[in-house]
Structures are given as structure tokens and as C-alpha cells.
Write a structure and sequence with these properties.
single chain; mainly alpha; two-stranded antiparallel ribbon; 4 strands; 77% helix
Length: 315
């Protein structure tokens, strides 16, 4: 029964695409692509994007989008680094930054819910604001950190095997999947995305649902920025540029409809792995960075095209 369901699902196509990427890049790189070391590299690079993917997946299911995660991550990485260099205890510094992440999400939600701004415009403004603030609070310079515990969060490994960022990403993915698939709130997310009016008649407060999702998305972006700063041993205002672009590409590629109401976190996770594997393969082949940027744009076009075809098939 499960096998038949898989054959009819979009996930089969995604898994085939992933298999093709593995085979092609393994051949082109002389079997250096599908190795333990490189798979680990892909997993680490996927972890930061993965946290943002969770937030974007939820928002896209309700028919919204957030363009600010890259800027929020950069701002958070700089801020936590500044706090640590000024002697603030690590746990307190992280809690402060995560709280600010929640407040940024609340600001986005208020702009969308109360001022009725389009999500694209509201979060585009937030993207500009917090990228600018990231530069302002550090004077445009990287803030280096020497706190060993903080650095281990970004570079350490559980039992010397599983990188902490990957472990954190997996834990949050597991929690988010359970919430989306097994809880009343998860059902509310799909109902709001599928038909907001019907959800309202069913007693669901759509604005409250969206507010929670925007807050969670920004908090996850802030957490990603913290982990990124730990990996780089510094908070950098230029970090995480295009993070939201990669996250949206992965989510749409994974089968989440831009129109809302359709999609799964499992599909988004496969989309993330496909995208990061594709990017990693290009780097291993020493493709110039500007051509990698072009390729990512083409990948987004492909993802949107697949979304269009899926919507036509559903109708």
C-alpha cells in the first residue's frame, strides 16, 4: 500500500532527481562526490538553510513568504558575537538573540495582518532593514569570537561523528513534521492555506496562525545565524546572503505549492538535499561562482515550473 502511494507521489520524482544528481556528479568528479566526507559537507551546508526551510515551508503552505531570513541570520550572527565579546554569558546571549528573532517575526506579521501589506513587500522591507542594521552595529567589520563553547556549537560533533548544526536541524525538522502532521495547529495551517474563509468559518483565527508562523520563521533564521557565526568563528554582516532564496527554492522544488494549502516538510527536506547537492557538485567541478549563481536562478525557474505543472494537474 505504501509502495503504491510512493509511486503516485511527487516524492518519487524528487528521489529520482536526487539519484541522477548523485550519479552524474560522481562520474564527473571521479567518484569523489558520493563519499562520507563530501556527504558530511553537504549535510553541514544544508543545516543552516534547513532551519530556514522549515519556516518557509510553513509560510508557503499558508500562501505567504518571508524574504528576510538571510538578513535576520546575518544580524543575529553579528549581534550574538557582539554580546559574547562584551562578556554576556553564552546562554543569555543566545536567548536575547532568539527573542529578538521572535520580535522581528512579530513585526512582519503585524505589517501583513494589520497594515495589510503584501508579504513580499513587508518582508522585503525587513530584509533591507536588518541587513543594514547588521552593518551598523558592527561598523561593517566582522566580529570575531573566542568562546570555545560557542565555537563548538558550529564546528563540534556529537560523539565525534554528527556535526552539531546537522543534529540541531534534524531535531527541529522532526518536531516541525510532528506539529504539521499530528496536531490541530498543523491542520489549521493547511486549512488557512487552502481556504482562509472556510478556516474562519471553522473557528480558526487565520491572522493568529500567520503571526505564529512569521515569529517561528524569524526565530529559526536567528538560530541559523547563531550557528553560522559559530562555524565561521565570527559574526559577519555579509553572511547568509541569498539564504532565503535557497530556502524558497528548496521548498518549492520539494512540492510545496506557492498558492498555499499543499506540500509537506518531507518533500521540502528532499528539495533541500537536491539543491545543496547540486550546489556542492558545481563547487567540486570548480564552476565559477557567477555561473553557480546563474545555475541557482535556473534551478528556481525549474522549481516554479514544476509547481505550475503540479497545480495544473491538481485542477
Amino acid at each position: 500500500m505504501k509502495a503504491k502511494k510512493l509511486l503516485k507521489s511527487d516524492k518519487l520524482g524528487l528521489l529520482i532527481a536526487l539519484l541522477i544528481i548523485i550519479i552524474v556528479f560522481s562520474i564527473l568528479t571521479g567518484n569523489k562526490f558520493f563519499t562520507v566526507a563530501n556527504v558530511t559537507n553537504i549535510a553541514i551546508s544544508s543545516a543552516i538553510v534547513g532551519l530556514v526551510v522549515i519556516g518557509e515551508c510553513y509560510l508557503l503552505i499558508v500562501g505567504h513568504v518571508d524574504l528576510s531570513p538571510g538578513s535576520v541570520a546575518a544580524f543575529s550572527g553579528v549581534l550574538v558575537s557582539l554580546l559574547l565579546t562584551r562578556g554576556v554569558p553564552l546562554l543569555l546571549a543566545i536567548l536575547i538573540v532568539l527573542l529578538i528573532g521572535l520580535l522581528i517575526g512579530l513585526m512582519n506579521a503585524l505589517l501583513v495582518n494589520k497594515l495589510k501589506l503584501e508579504p513580499f513587500i513587508a518582508t522585503l522591507a525587513a530584509m533591507s532593514i536588518f541587513r543594514g542594521l547588521a552593518y551598523i552595529i558592527c561598523g561593517g567589520k566582522a566580529v570575531f569570537v573566542t568562546n570555545d563553547t560557542f565555537l563548538k556549537m558550529g564546528t563540534g560533533r556529537l560523539f565525534g561523528v554528527i556535526p552539531y548544526p546537522v543534529l540541531i536541524c534534524i531535531v527541529f525538522f522532526a518536531i516541525a513534521i510532528v506539529i504539521l502532521n499530528r496536531t490541530r495547529f498543523g491542520r489549521s495551517v493547511y486549512m488557512v492555506g487552502g481556504n482562509a474563509n472556510a478556516a474562519r468559518l471553522a473557528g480558526i483565527n487565520a491572522e493568529k496562525v500567520r503571526m505564529k508562523l512569521y515569529m517561528a520563521a524569524s526565530a529559526l533564521a536567528a538560530l541559523g545565524g547563531i550557528l553560522q557565526a559559530g562555524r565561521m568563528s565570527s559574526g559577519q554582516p555579509t553572511a547568509s546572503d541569498g539564504l532565503e532564496f535557497d530556502a524558497v527554492t528548496a521548498v518549492v522544488l520539494g512540492g510545496v505549492a506557492m498558492s498555499g494549502g499543499v506540500g509537506t516538510l518531507g518533500g521540502a527536506a528532499i528539495g533541500l538535499i537536491i539543491m545543496q547537492s547540486f550546489n556542492n557538485g558545481l563547487m567540486m567541478l570548480n564552476v565559477p561562482s557567477f555561473w553557480q549563481t546563474v545555475s541557482r536562478g535556473l534551478l528556481l525557474i525549474a522549481a516554479l515550473s514544476f509547481d505550475f505543472i503540479r497545480n495544473r494537474r491538481r485542477k
